[in-house]
Design brief:
Largest sheet: 4 strands, mixed
Number of strands: 4
Shape: globular
Strand order of the largest sheet: 1-2-4-3
Distance between the termini: 43 Å
Number of domains: 2
Strand content: under 5%
Structural class: mainly alpha
Helix content: over 70%
Radius of gyration: 24 Å
């Protein structure tokens, strides 16, 4: 194990140097020549100071993504030394397996939360310093505590059921877990708008009648006229612009953040909401679930293979009893996280395709490319981003097309509409 840690440290330092050289040489406000001087070029609608701030923030997020991901593995491996102690204490204190799981998971989640607390606080302060948020420290800590509580309420039963499946189906438990993941995902999507989201923000019927009429018309045309049209106090946590559609059936909600109402014109809001409604009109949520079923099957299979290899390699060293020993949870998390990370570009690729389709639907539905352009320019400025991330970063993290490319598509909409070419993804 010591050899592994030393080898990891050397490789990580070399990796960090390579990442640093790459990221520190990125040009602030860079866009390819084809976008330079157009409405998609941030230099046309952002000041030099705004571009410098956005580049600084982008670079911090890029560093965090590339440097934190490998460290997460070491942190969870470190918890293996504590995992055995928590398991022993749980077994000593409780006979019932559910309470053993609850005892163990409480300490596991608490230690992870405390480890990442400095990083979370850093990004909270960063958002405050750059005007992305006005949230008070008390409110931020309240949300953090609420998230921790929800993690326990949801996580303990799920982890208990997982290890029960491992015990009952020692060879096929990964298959049973995969089969159960889809209905659990759908259930969570159904109850989240009603029971979870309101814990963090206030939702109320949209008061602006002009905006409400425009959204209602879009909803009826998309076949979701029964959806509730709500306003959310998003400004509690962030100053950035956002809107979304969520839920199923009677729980379906069309939600507009108060930040969007404040920053966008009615035409811009109409375009943004047409885009969000398009995801339901075009069945993206169901197509996404279909791909998730397929990808999650291979993810589950690869996870179990990696998990068994790690357990055989170092299980005896850590004092793990068997695969249904609750103490193996960190190994399961490492295995799942690594495989999910490697599979993430697949989901990002699909998401980008759906965003392209939603953009096309919105521009064809509203016919207002000026509103589309100015809306995305405001989204770029408001989100403190330059709108064009490098290829490697876009491949790994890009769930949406680059904003620069989207604005360019809107700008050339008439020509694009004529030849039926597609916006870039």
């Amino acid at each position: 194990m010591k050899k592994f840690l030393w080898g990891f440290l050397i490789c990580y330092l070399l990796y960090a140097v390579g990442v640093s050289v790459y990221l520190l040489n990125l040009e602030p406000g860079y866009v390819p020549n084809e976008y330079a001087g157009t409405s998609a070029d941030p230099k046309q609608f952002m000041t030099e100071k705004e571009i410098a701030e956005a580049h600084h923030l982008d670079t911090i997020h890029y560093f965090t993504f590339f440097l934190q991901t490998p460290l997460d593995i070491v942190i969870v491996l470190f918890l293996m030394t504590l995992s055995i102690k928590w398991r022993n204490q749980a077994v000593t204190r409780f006979r019932n397996s559910f309470w053993q799981t609850g005892f163990y998971y409480f300490f596991f989640s608490m230690v992870l939360t405390l480890i990442y607390l400095p990083l979370d606080f850093f990004f909270y302060r960063l958002s405050r310093n750059y005007g992305l948020s006005n949230q008070s420290a008390a409110s931020w800590l309240g949300d953090l505590g609420l998230s921790f509580g929800l993690d326990l309420v949801i996580g303990i039963p799920l982890v208990w059921l997982l290890f029960l499946a491992i015990k009952k189906f020692p060879r096929k438990w990964w298959l049973a877990s995969w089969a159960a993941s889809l209905p659990l995902t759908i259930l969570l999507m159904f109850i989240s708008p009603v029971f979870i989201a309101p814990l963090f923000n206030d939702y109320k019927p949209l008061e602006n009648e002009k905006v409400k009429i425009e959204i209602q018309e879009l909803a009826y045309e998309a076949g979701i006229g029964e959806a509730k049209i709500l306003e959310m106090n998003m400004s509690k946590q962030t100053n950035t612009i956002n809107a979304f559609v969520n839920g199923f059936g009677s729980n379906m909600q069309i939600v507009l953040g108060d930040t969007a109402i404040k920053e966008l014109t009615i035409d811009e809001i109409k375009f943004v909401m047409a885009h969000e409604i398009a995801h339901y009109k075009m069945g993206h949520i169901y197509k996404g679930l279909a791909l998730q079923v397929l990808v999650s099957f291979f993810t589950a299979f690869a996870t179990i293979c990696l998990f068994h290899w790690l357990r055989r390699k170092w299980g005896d060293h850590w004092g793990l009893k068997d695969q249904h020993d609750i103490a193996v949870l960190p190994l399961l998390i490492i295995s799942f996280s690594l495989i999910s990370f490697l599979a993430s570009p697949i989901g990002n690729w699909q998401s980008r395709l759906y965003e392209v389709e939603a953009d096309r639907y919105a521009i064809e539905r509203t016919g207002n490319k000026e509103a589309a352009i100015t809306a995305f320019q405001k989204l770029t400025k408001n989100g403190k981003s330059t709108g064009y991330e490098p290829a490697v970063i876009h491949f790994m993290t890009g769930s949406h097309p680059r904003i620069t490319e989207r604005i360019d598509f809107f700008d050339k909409y008439e020509d694009t509409h004529a030849d039926q070419s597609e916006p870039p993804s």
